[in-house]
Every structure is written in structure tokens, then in C-alpha cells.
Amino acid sequence: MIEFRNVTKRYGAVTVLDDVSFTIKSGEFVVVIGPSGCGKTTTLRTINRLIEPKPGTVFIDGKDVTLQSGVELRRSIGYVIQQIGLFPNMTVEENIAVVPKLLKYPPEECRTIVHDLLALVNMPWDEYAHKYPNQLSGGQQQRIGVLRALAASPPIVLMDEPFGALDPVTREGLQEEVKRIQKKLKKTIVFVTHDMDEALRLADTIIFMDKGKILQMASPEEMLHKPADTLIKNFLGRHIEEETPSAPKRAEEFMKKRVYTVNENVKTLQSIERMRKREVNSLVVIDDEERYLGTVSIEEIKRRGKAGRAVSEYLNTDTLTVNRNSDAKEALDKLLASTENYVIVLNDDRSVAGIITRTSTAKALGEALWGEIEA
Amino acid sequence: MTELLHAMAEHLVIVTLSMAVASLIGVALGVLSYWWHRAGVVIIALAEIIQTIPSLALLALLMIIFGLGDVTLAVALILYAQLPIIRNTTTALNELDSHIIDAARGMGMSRAQRLLKVEIPLSIPMIFGGIKVALVNSLSIAVMGVLIGSGGLGYIVYRGIQQRNMGRILLGAIPVVCIALLFDYLMGKVEVRLSKHTS
Predict the structure, then answer these.
(1) Beta-carbon neighbour count of residue B152 at 10 Å?
(2) pTM assigned to the model
(3) Nearest chain B residue to A45, by CA
(4) Hey, what domains does chain A have and what are their CATH numbers?
């Protein structure tokens, strides 16, 4: 258990931590998040006394941390940093065994620890133990960084943006590994990040900080449902939207509103002229009350059409239609079955509301996922 | 020929022993300057002042204290070696990646453990570079040792001057140059090897 009681930290006139109090339960995965300069790293470094808590007190398992020497304290707390900080002069094995050696574990025990830990992250001992850090990839180096923190089985591990410098794929892999290891070894982990994805993925509890104060301390679910501050809401951003998905459900949400219509009494030549101007090859035919009658295509008029006749004589009534309030799925099924690649959407009074094409469908789905799209 | 070999051996022994002592003192002072910045400013200023004293004058001054002989020469060489060794040591330590130091602190290393396990090992190539410069300088300065009754290749050069014998002067001078070049080359090689696992 880690407890902060009224911890304040000032550098000159700048207050980095402003009367911070909170309690972290044993075995909890706590992510501290906030904008840069919010005091999250300072909070972390106060736990192992890389920064002295003054005024205020930090307790670990009920014991004031300042009662123990900083050096001793830090040996009992794991520490991982963004810049990894492996010792370049030591092999992988020596790096992992740093703290056990400081604690004067016998050499055989150190070797067993290194063996077991490398196995935990699927890095075979034979292949990796004797490599130097500069012979490893970034992801591998940070794996070793994590193992080094775990080597002396500390009950608490502090991680300061440990995966911030890694590419997204490697980062995700390591996040999973850390979560798995934490559950397996039942560690208390305090993890600093500025990445909300990471926080939501890993945390049992999220502490959101700003300007040296805690704005909210809650489970990821609670924070998503009841963010205590607009800043938190901004940080959560798209995650809040994901909570209330607004996928389009009705046919009208998929349609394009601009439809080129023609009155049934218009003559063939005129309608061909209109199609040319609009660059389309068919028009929707309506009666004098603007009710839908059917469609007329340029091919049909060219094949059978005679000058001076009304378009109603060449009407195609097989075109598929749907009501604007009908289920979107029905409309899409019809669209896929349609030979003309479109479905006409009608209002309740059978006037034309719009048209569903493959393009309009794609646009509607795209907007549902990512917001307004230029088309 | 035996005279030459004898002189060379003498020369090398004085220089290498002096440099061994100079390295210990120089690295210690370098670490002190790293740990305690204020002291560092004074230490480096003193080393710089020593560096500017002409070797003849310094030898004369030391002779008053230590008398004639090898010890006086050795003390002079040790003094002259301080600046490159101290400066390289503090520079190397100050330029270490701060995150590595942070990690070392975070692991629970004491200041001494950090120094011995991490900071010095990572600074070795640059410290060694400082020792190389000091050693190569010392090889030529040691020639002056003949004036205060010390041996080495300086003796052969000095005799050549007295006899106005150009051949003898060169017989003493050329080995000094050759040894210096050889040390420079070999120690440069070692320096590269040492740098292999420091980044």
C-alpha cells in the first residue's frame, strides 16, 4: 500500500505538487496521467525518494519512507524509465542482476533469477544473456529494462512512460506483457503516461493530474462515464464517443438528397438534354403531384424513343425503392441486389426523398466512424 | 648499442611509473571535481597553471625540494600529466547520459557504487585518452631529466650536444620520437576497443 498524505513539492516559486493525498492498494495497477508539467513524474519519483517529499509524508505499507535510507528504499522498489537507461557496460545478464547483486544475493540465485525472467518474456537465455544493450532493438532493451526492475521481486514497480519511445506495435506487445506479468506476480504498479489509450488499457485505477493537483482518481469505466473535468473529457476524447456508438440505422441516413427528377409529361429530347447537363444516364420520373412513378434511362430512349413523345412511355418501373424510415439493412440488401446500382428512397406520400448509391453508403458509414467527410 | 638500450629502458621505466602514479592522482582529482564542482574549478585552474610553467623552470624548482635524481623528474612528469587526465576524467563523467545515472540511482546504487559500477566504466575510453596524451608528452619532457641528474635518452642527447656530435644527438632524439609514436598508435587502438560497450 502506498499513501500520499498532504505532499507538496516546490521548486522556487513553482509548485509542482500541491497538497496531494491519495492511497494506492497493494496489487493495484495505477496509471497516473495528465498534461506535461502536471506533476505526474514528480509524484512517481517521490515514491522512491528520488525527490524528497517535503512538506508531507509518503507511507509505504504504513511506514514513512523517510525513515529508511533512500538507497535501501530504492533497492526494494522497481524502477523503469522511458529512456530505458540500461548500463551499456554490462551484458543483459549483468543488467538484470544489478539489484540482486546490490542486495548481495548469492551468484547462483542471481543466475536463476535471470534465467526465469528471460523466460518470462520469451528471450532465450542462451541467445540474449551475454549480449550488450547496444546489440538489442529498442523493444528488447525495454523488456530488459522491465526485467531489471523485477529482478529482486519488489512488491512495487514504478514506471515512468516506459513505452513512450517505442513504435506502436512494439508498445502494444509490451503493454500486454506488463499487464500479464503484473497479474501473474501480483505487483503494485504505478505507471506514468500521457497516452489515454495506454491508461485505459492497463489501469485498474487512473489518477488524473493537472497543475500539481489530482483532478480525479477513478477506475477507467467510471472516468469514461463520469469525467470530473472538461480537461479529462478532452483527454478521453474519442473514447467517450465509442461508449455511445451512433451507427446509422434508417435508410434515409444512407441516402444522397440530390436527385434529378423529370415530370412524366416532359418530351424525350428535353429529358436527354437534361441528362447530358447533369452528367447522369437516368432520371427519376414523377407525376404532377411529385409522386414517384419510375425511372427513365438514356439507353431506353435511344433504343425505342421517338421525338415528341413523353418520357412516361419509356418508364422503367422495376427500379427498387424503400421507405425513408425503413431499416437500413433492407435498403442495403436491395442495393446489393439491384442491377442499376441504386435504390430510390421515398417519403410516406411516395414523393422522392433521395437515392442510395454505393458511394452514399460508403460516405454515411465513414462519417459514422470518423465524423464529417468531404465528398 | 647497449648504452642506447639501457637509456631507452631507463626512460620507459621512469615515464611509465610516473604515469601510473599520475593516473591514480589525476582520476581521483577528476572524480572530486565531478562530485564537487567548486573544488573542480580550483583543481583545473591549478593544473592549468602547472602546465604553463616551462619544464626547465619547474625542474629547477623541484630540485630545490627533492634534490637531484629520478624522483624529481618523476614528480615533474606527474605534475605535467595532471591537466589532461583530470580534464578528461571530469569531462567524461559530466557528459554521461543523465538517464543512465538516473537509472543507477533508481536501482538503489550509492554514490560510490554508481561511480565504480557505472560511471567510471563508461568514462574509461576518455580517461584513457587523457592518459595517452599525458604519456606521449612525458616521453619528450623526460629528456630534460638529464639536467637534474636523471637518466634516460636525455643523457645521450646531452652528451651529443657537449661533443657537438649531431649523430649522437639524433641517436637519443629519434628513439624518443619513435617510442612516442608507437605509444600513441597502440594506445589509440586500445581506446577504440574500450569504447565498444560504452554507448
Answers:
(1) 27
(2) 0.72
(3) B106
(4) 2-243 (3.40.50.300), 251-370 (3.10.580.10)
